[in-house]
Design goal:
The chain is α/β, with parallel strands linked by helices. It has a single domain, classed as Spore Coat Polysaccharide Biosynthesis Protein SpsA, Chain A. It is built from 9 helices and 7 strands, in the order βααβαβαβαβαβααβα. It has a 7-stranded mixed β-sheet with strand order 3-2-1-4-6-5-7, with helices on both faces. The longest helix is centred in the last third of the chain and has 20 residues.
């Protein structure tokens, strides 16, 4: 199988009723390679799982993984380690980055890259506070973790299966045993991924992708800024104390 798409889902009833899975299915039915979509329900307390089950009952290639509530990080990891594709992509349910952007991601793997990350140019429609958060955080991650990327936080990242297995089984701050409350979209998840990729010597490409701000986002500027900084420092401390094994 060429491609697995992992989509974490926590209380995504609104997006599901808006037809995001129908759009995804419509696109994938037109490609000429085998694929699967793993929707990871992160212990939702609305009708997310029920709606997904109804959809997959009549759409081949889609699977539902029911997981305890661990936040986005735990949900993504659960899906990534169970994915069967040679290339594994995780993306957001609301499709702020449209699935059509796969056409920019996939060719990079043919060029020999292990990981390809989306980069949101200008963050069209995003509130000013989110743009300021992004700029400040980019300075911190460069200084503390030496990550040179323009955008580490875009929820559209692809991995070879080999790279995925190497990274997601090594993660310390975010893992399959974690527990959380609420939606939990902390920035530290992506930072830990990319720090491990750098230390493992994996080739990472960053490509510009379309991105559209979606109303009802789960981002909380103050809370997420603090949690992002906290997790950034956790990654650095783990590195200094030798907790990551390479």
């Amino acid at each position: 199988m060429k491609l697995s798409i992992v989509i974490p889902a926590y209380n995504e009833e609104k997006s599901l009723k808006a037809g995001v899975l129908e759009e995804l299915d419509g696109y994938l039915r037109r490609v000429d390679y085998p694929w699967e979509v793993l929707i990871v329900d992160d212990g939702s307390n609305d009708k997310t799982a029920e709606l997904v089950e109804g959809f997959i009952s009549s759409h081949k290639g889609f699977r539902l993984l029911r997981e305890p509530h661990r936040g986005k990080g735990g949900g993504v990891i659960a899906g990534m380690v169970k994915a069967k594709g040679d290339i594994v992509l995780f993306t957001d349910m609301d499709q702020a980055t449209p699935i059509t952007q796969l056409e920019k991601i996939l060719p990079k793997f043919d060029e020999g890259y292990d990981i390809v990350i989306g980069s949101r140019s200008g963050r069209q429609g995003a509130p000013v506070i989110r743009k300021l958060m992004a700029y400040g955080f980019s300075m911190l991650r460069l200084l503390v973790l030496r990550l040179p990327y323009k955008d580490t936080q875009c929820g559209f990242k692809g991995f070879t299966k080999k790279a995925s297995q190497k990274i997601f089984r090594r993660m310390k701050i975010f893992n399959e045993r974690m527990r959380t409350q609420g939606a939990s979209v902390t920035a530290g998840f992506d930072l830990e991924i990319l720090y491990l990729a750098r230390k493992l010597g994996l080739k990472v490409a960053e490509v510009g992708v379309e991105w559209h701000h979606k109303e009802g986002t789960k981002v909380n500027p103050l809370k997420d800024s603090w949690e992002g900084f906290r997790d950034l420092m956790k990654v650095r401390i783990n590195a200094i104390t030798g907790k990551y094994k390479f």
